[in-house]
Amino acid sequence: GRVLEGTGSPEDANGDPRRGPLHLEQDSAAEHRADQVAGSLLSAQVWNEEVPGGNPGSLGHPELCTRPCLFFSQGECANGSSCDFCHLQHPKRPAHLDKRHRLMLQKMSLPQVASLLLPIIREKVFVLDACSADSVASLRGLAARCGCPTALDAEWPPPRQNSSERLLIVALQAMSLRLLLTSLHRSIPEEDVGTRLQVDALLEHLRHRSCVHVASPPPQVSLAAHVAKV
After folding, report:
1. CA–CA separation, 95 and 97 (whole Å)
2. What is the pTM of this model?
3. I need a labelling partner for 200 at 20 to 30 A (CA). Which of 39, 73, 186, 226 fits?
């Protein structure tokens, strides 16, 4: 894809196929700004030299890091330890949803999307974070705000699925935790700022938790405090 100037990362071409080039460029620019904000916050709070990759963008690799830095692999990253993109090895083609699966999600309501994504997110969070009290509270809060308060307690996988639904679940399970949270974020209406902020807070909480076993982390702001402000 085309490289956005100064990002070190290709533009994501996996957006809504019904959206024109201008919308895709705006989406990519918005994602880049979100990555920059996240990287700036992390660089101020985490000792970069003790984080794998040595830079903010690598924090949480491989499940929660930002997109790979194209310039680092070529030995040309001018931002070095302050780079907001990941400096660690990624697969050449990370797992993404294909056009058919993206259309399936787009046709679903937010409660339907959340009921599908949150159980998979929960399983990945359990592996990463052992489901700390803050993480569990945030996931349950998200389920309630998305209109599916029992999603985390329902039978999983769903007992009745057609072949298309089974393939969609398999594709979602192959995606990284960051991409799953991003998919949920995109399904939330733009005017529902509070729920979008809650997804953002969970992502940053998990990225900080990922450095617990690597180094002594800095004092962490409680996720519950983030949620209380929403």
Report:
1. 7
2. 0.69
3. 73
User: What is the torsional sign of CA 96, 97, 98, 102?
Assistant: negative
pLDDT of amino acid 136: 87
Summarised one tens digit per residue, pLDDT across range 21-45 is 444 444 454 455 445 444 444 443 4
Distance of CA 224 to the CA centre of its chain: 19
- Residue 6: partners with Cβ closer than 8 Å, 6 or more residues away: none
Q: Is the peptide bond before 157 cis (omega within 30 degrees of 0)?
A: yes
Residue 86, judged by CB atoms within 10 A of its CB (0-12, 13-18, 19+), counts as: buried
Rounded CA-CA distance 95/83 in Å is: 23
> Which pLDDT does position 130 carry in this prediction?
61
Answer positive or negative: Cα dihedral of 39, 121, 206, 134: positive
- Would you tell me how many other CB atoms lie within 10 Å of the CB of residue 167? 15
169-182 CB burial, b ≥16 within 10 A, e <16:
bebbeebbbbbbbb
Spatial contact of 182 and 66, defined as CB atoms under 8 Å apart = no
| Residue the block writes with tokens 């700004």 | 33
DSSP state at residue 56: G
* Per-residue pLDDT reduced to its tens digit, 143-164: 999 999 999 998 888 887 889 9
